[in-house]
Each structure stands twice: as C-alpha cells, then as structure tokens.
Design a protein that fits this description.
The protein is of the alpha+beta class and about 150 residues long. It has one domain (about 15-145): TT1751-like domain (TATA-Binding Protein). The protein is about 40% helix and about 25% strand.
C-alpha cells in the first residue's frame, strides 16, 4: 500500500505543469532569469527533439530538459548520501506547443516518497520547492486536467 503523498498516489500528481504563453526560446530565457533570481543554476540542457531528429530522423515539437540545481543544496545532499546524483539535479522539461511553452517538474510531494533515502528527503524537498516557487513567478500553474488538454 502506498503512503499518502508518495509518487503514484491518486490524490496528488507526481508532476506539476506550468504554462508560459511564449515560444520555447523566449520562455527558456525567462526561466533562466527566474532561476537565477532564486539562486538556482542550470548545469545542463538536453535538446530532446534535436537529438531524436539527429539520431532517428523523427521530427517533434521543440523539447528540452533543464538540469537545475542549487549548489548549496546539492552539497548538503552529497554530504548526506552518496546516491544524490540519482535524485539531483532536478529535471525541468520544457516543450513548445502552438507557440506556447509547457514546463513540467516533479511535485515537491515526491520528496516524501518512502523509497527516497531519509537523508535526502529534506534536500530534495527544498530544491523542488525552490524550483516550483521560481516557476510560479514567471509562469501560470496548470491543473493536471488542463495540462493534458
């Protein structure tokens, strides 16, 4: 039986969706600025649609994954548990559809997942909360039903 708040429960979605009514490139500039103001860093960016086009010849709408960290929280987590790299950095998925950008990030409730080592739960929760709060300053939070429409 799953615990309340763990990933996979029906009472809360495992991810949160945000909307920026701008094309992907402009939205990503806003996101990076918002993350900088929240003392967050994008340490890596993966162009998913570009790689699939290059390797498989498949054309998709623009989609990128941002690897987001707070260096202080990452250090804290690394000291607490050597498996930190499995959980951090946080991945923020950005995809463009009809000239707008949707952003997806794990819900802070993920950190309450009982499979997460105890020492990491607080660090992961802090980072997910900081990422979510930064996105709320630049994007509109969408309900799970609206995000799939």
């Amino acid at each position: 039986m799953r615990q309340k708040g763990s990933v996979g429960t029906t009472d809360e979605s495992a991810s949160i969706t945000f909307l920026i009514p701008e094309p992907l490139d402009k939205a990503l500039r806003l996101v990076r600025r918002g993350f900088g103001q929240a003392q967050l860093s994008v340490w890596a960016e993966m162009d998913i649609s570009g790689k699939l086009r290059q390797e498989l010849g498949v054309g998709l709408m623009p989609c990128r994954i941002l690897c987001v960290v707070c260096p202080v929280l990452l250090l804290e987590a690394a000291v607490l548990h050597p498996s930190v790299g499995v959980f951090l950095p946080v991945h923020v998925v950005a995809s463009e559809r009809r000239g707008q950008t949707q952003l997806y990030v794990l819900s802070p409730a993920f950190a309450q997942n009982p499979s997460l080592p105890l020492g990491l739960q607080l660090s992961v929760a802090k980072l997910l909360d900081r990422v979510t709060r930064a996105l709320e300053t630049i994007a509109t939070r969408r309900s799970p039903a609206a995000a799939t429409a």
